[in-house]
Design a protein that fits this description.
Chain lengths: ~120, ~110
């Protein structure tokens, strides 16, 4: 079975400093991994995805994530936080053996950005 | 990409009643998914709806409580039946653009049961 563990429920950074949101995964199969962002009272938006191509994945709004199989990790980073990055972030694994995209969500990390 | 419209966006309901949530997609899709996001929690898959067949429910969710219809390739409904305060959540509809690519989500329906 697939699962993801987001290691921090809250992360606080200052504007202009780096962001690191941690995610570890467990999968019986070669995983597809995603990061989604949820702004207050808005829908979920895909930030980036890993589907067995390049291990360093670049996404929207300056975010990127690196797939490390040896560490079973898929941490999300951004060099410089912006106030608009404050939101809930979900690490997601796809159950790729099902033939369709059954998504398993992590518990989420709330990113707080202070001026 | 896919644009998903959910109705209603929010509702406050009395316990013991039922609410039907509609999900309309701007393109034909094979699979539609319904998720629940309880307050302060992550998303949990309720069921997968395939046009022309009965929905497939995840562990902990049953058809009597969450009946789903999928009459065509662009539309689905989720009903939350005999509601209790524990059903207060955001319910989201989702579709996939293709196998192993991006999943798109509606804005969600924020349900409060009093």
């Amino acid at each position: 079975a697939q699962s993801v563990t987001q290691l921090d429920s809250h992360v606080s950074v200052s504007e202009g400093t780096p962001v690191l949101l941690r995610c570890n995964y467990s999968s019986s199969y070669s995983p597809s991994l995603f990061w989604y962002v949820q702004h207050p009272n808005k829908g979920l938006q895909l930030l980036l995805k890993y589907t067995s191509a390049a291990t360093l994945v670049k996404g929207i709004n300056g975010f990127e994530a690196e797939f490390k199989k040896s560490e079973t990790s898929f941490h999300l980073t951004k060099p410089s936080a912006h106030m608009s990055d404050a939101a809930e972030y979900f690490c997601v694994v796809s159950a790729t053996n099902t033939g369709f995209q059954k998504l398993v969500f992590g518990t989420g990390t709330r990113l707080l950005v202070s001026p | 990409s896919a644009v998903i419209s959910q109705k209603p966006s929010r509702d406050i309901c009395q316990r013991g009643t039922s609410l039907t949530i509609q999900c309309q997609v701007d393109s034909q899709v094979t699979m539609m998914f319904w998720y629940r996001q309880q307050p302060g929690q992550s998303l949990t898959l309720i069921a997968t709806a395939n046009q022309g067949s009965e929905a497939t429910y995840e562990s902990g969710f049953v058809i009597d409580k969450f009946p789903i219809s999928r009459p065509n390739l662009t539309f689905s409904t989720l009903t939350v039946s005999n509601m209790s305060p524990e059903d207060s959540s955001i319910y989201l509809c989702s579709v996939e653009s293709g196998y192993d690519t991006e999943a798109f989500f509606g804005q969600g329906t924020r349900l409060t049961v009093v």
